[in-house]
Amino acid sequence: MNRVSVVSTGAYLPGDPISNEDMERLVGPLPEEVLEGLQVTSRHWVIDPATGDHRESNSELAHKAATQALERAGVAPEEVDLLVTSTASPEYLLPPMVTYLQERMGLRACSAIEVRSGCAGFVEAMDVARLYLERGLKRTAVVVGSEVISPLLVPVFRGQDPSRIRMRDRMNPYNFGDGAGAMVLKADDGAGAGEGGVVGGEFACVGGLRAPGMQIVGAGGTHAPIHRQISAKRLIDLKVDIIESGRFTPYVITEALQATLRGAGVKADDVDLCVIPEGNAGYITDELEEAGLLTPEWLSLSPKIFENLALVGATGSAAVPLAMDHAWTTGSVSPGDLVMLLAIETSKWKYAGLVFNWTASPLAVTS
Questions:
Q1: pLDDT tens digits for range 340-356
Q2: Cα–Cα distance between 129 and 145 in angstroms, integer?
């Protein structure tokens, strides 16, 4: 078994940041207490808010993040023998987006795998890649989480009077953003698995008997006849069960934390940096406290949690790698640090966690 190390990250955010003041003009205002709960102050969209037109594609975002990660690692694209991507917003049902990323990278042939998921998907993709590298089946992997959620939001506001948009319909445009993040992983023959590289982790779906907390409905899926989809109020609709998400999320994220610590064989006190999208949002702590789940593990990790939700919004598969890239580029993580990635998604109540030793040298950038 080979050691697997994360050697670099990359990130890409499309367009200029869209402020909450911009959002108010676009979809109407949200109450101040709701804005505080969301915690998002800016986000980036691939669409032109004025027209709804797309300025970039999902695979373009993925390619730009992957290119930056490879350049920082000093790795040529042709050295990559494994691509793993995660997205819930592919350009097409087929071919998988990962194959378009492969094409943009100029690779005639390589192993290419796509995880269809949201927030938990990137960490799942990392776990898939590290297993191939540990076993010596592949040498160099690029893992990308990329989302373009803004096209799903256009029907909410395009051609609408902002003052007439329902309050609950305003939430998603304020909350979600687009972006892509990438990591380069390399196998090292000189050390065994877990020795200075990826230590371990866990992933699971714990909502096998529960209704989804989030669904993307329509867009040519096979859940209903096409003629019924076409006649629906919206051809594609992003549905979020806010009440159930608030109620059940604390239990999922606590189970995720405990399972990840067990899977990696570490204690919360051992972790130096814990990347949890939305981990510092006030509502997470409040919900954990109300559910009686502020465990010693959470209390130990609380000052170590890192995320950049306020700057980018909820970005699905891109959330974890965007936050990890921000940690590296701002000097918030140092060589030797034990890093935990922990993500959950409400789609069908999935979680994924991974623990690894950070080995990349400090990066002299601030963006």
A1: 999 999 999 999 999 99
A2: 13
Say whether pLDDT at 224 is over 90: no
Type of residue numbered 70: L
Q: Which helix (H) or strand (E) holds 7?
A: strand 3-12
Token pair in block for residue 329: 């580029």
Whether the Cβ atoms of residue 177 and residue 309 lie closer than 8 Å to each other: no
The Cα–Cα gap between 345 and 238 comes to 14
Alpha-helix residue ranges (DSSP H) falling in the chain: 20-27, 32-38, 58-73, 97-104, 121-134, 150-157, 167-175, 226-231, 242-264, 282-290, 296-301, 309-312, 319-329
Whether the Cβ atoms of residue 330 and residue 366 lie closer than 8 Å to each other = yes
Query: What domains are there in the chain, each with its CATH number?
Result: 3-357 (3.40.47.10)
Contacts of 356 (CB under 8 A, 6+ apart): 4, 5, 6, 197, 198, 199, 338, 339, 341
pLDDT in tens, 172-223: 999 999 999 999 999 987 666 656 799 999 999 999 999 999 888 887 788 8
- Kindly report the pTM of this predicted structure: 0.94
Cα 2 to Cα 122, 195, 264: the distances in Å are 22, 9, 16
Q: Which two tokens stand for residue 155?
A: 């029907």
Q: Among all chains, which residue has been given the structure tokens 């990308």?
A: 144
Rg (CA), the chain: 20
Q: Cβ contacts of residue 336 below 8 Å, gap of 6+?
A: 357, 358, 359
Exposure pattern of 54-83 as b/e (b: 16+ CB <10 Å)?
bebbbbbbbbbbbbbbbebbebebeebbbb
Mean of pLDDT values over 34-63:
95
* The residue to which tokens 């990323």 are assigned: 101
pLDDT, average across residues 128-147: 97
